[in-house]
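Dear Dr. H.,

I hope your travels went smoothly. While you were away I took the liberty of generating a structure for the chain from your last submission, since the lab meeting agenda had it listed for discussion. I wanted you to have the full record in hand beforehand rather than looking at slides cold. The sequence, exactly as received, is reproduced here:
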Amino acid sequence: MQNFLIHRFVKNHENTKSPDVRQAYGTMTSIVGIVVNFFLFAIKFVAGTLSGSIAITGDAINNLSDAGSSVISLISFKLSNKPADLEHPFGHARIEYIAASTVAIIILLIGVELIQTSIGKIRQPSEVDFTWLTAGILVFSIFVKLWLTRFNASLGKRIGSSVMKATAADSLADVLATTVVLISAVLSPVIGFQLDGYMGIAVALFIMNSGLGILKETLDSILGQGPTEELAEQIENYIDRYPGISGIHDLVAHNYGPNRWFASVHVEVDAAVDILVSHDLIDTIERDIMSELGIHLVIHMDPVVKDDPLINEYCQLTEEIVTAVDDSLTLHDFRLVRGSAFKKIVFDVTVPYNCKKSDQRILDEIEAAMKARQINAVITIDRSFLTKSNYKIKKSRTL
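The corresponding predicted structure, in token form, is as follows:
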């Protein structure tokens, strides 16, 4: 069914980086969600009304909210594909994150309302007229929601959509919620105690937990996250393939919606090479990475002296000192300043966020080790902007 829908409604479906293809995927999944959830709402609402079960009725209302969420998703995919304009030069793709947050808030409100209704049912319990037809409807809805979960999760992963992933998580919560309702309906007559209100609360908690998870994920994206380990490695490996690149460091990347990455990085080149030649190389890399990976990359060029034995000696000693302070630290932008009566080394140290030591303590320990060897040093502490704080740019080397 999934492949049929993709081939039928998504043209050029393999080009998932294309905004138009993403919109086609989003439109298709949203319409499927609207149709499926409204159908489930209708049959569950009838079953809940006939049986008098607040849990089944609440589950039906949850499906109606899911249909409404799919409408929001449909609108968000349309708006997020709008081209950049004067007021929004980075485009409108972050609307997708806002839409996912809206879906999460709706889910939370539905959960709160269901808890209030369920408490009333506990205080004033009533008989539930459960039939095998009702059971069949619930079992059928479970299988439909399992398919919808897989459908949204698969396509969400394919195009990197937070809205689809949120819908998949919500559908999985619905599966658990409906299963709880079914168990309640079967067990209540057997044990002679009405579980309906209690199971309604359980359903509400499932729903709210799903909403909180979705809200956290989308708020993280809105607040701003660094590049993933996979993206950092992809950028590094791409730049590394060009002859004349000696090192890579200080990668900073941020997005303005799915697949809308903007990045900057420092690239080390041989100082002995003509600066115009190195500049042409940098321009070529920037154009190529935009063309092939769709990443807006700005490269800062760092000339590095390679064939000076004294610089090599000081650099090796400095690397030993820095890694002795903490083996997660990395060294870059190393240079030796010579005077008539003094020598001074200047370098930067990158500190990952998982390092337990404070910046000041790291600076103090490195300076103390330098002074013990009678080395005058100017040190700058950098913080890594990588999401995975234990990841290091492997190509980063000064000499």
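Two observations you may find useful: The longest helix spans residues 19-51. The beta strands are 245-255, 261-270, 296-304, 330-338, 343-351, 376-383.

With kind regards,
E. W.
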